Amino acid sequence: MNIPNHPETETLQLTKVLHALSDPLRLELVKQLAEAKEKTCSTCADVQVAKSTLSHHFKVLRESGIAQVRIEGKRRYYSLRAEDLEKAFPGLLEAVLNVDQDRW
Question: Which CDD domains does UniProt cross-reference here?
Answer without folding.
Answer: HTH_ARSR (cd00090)
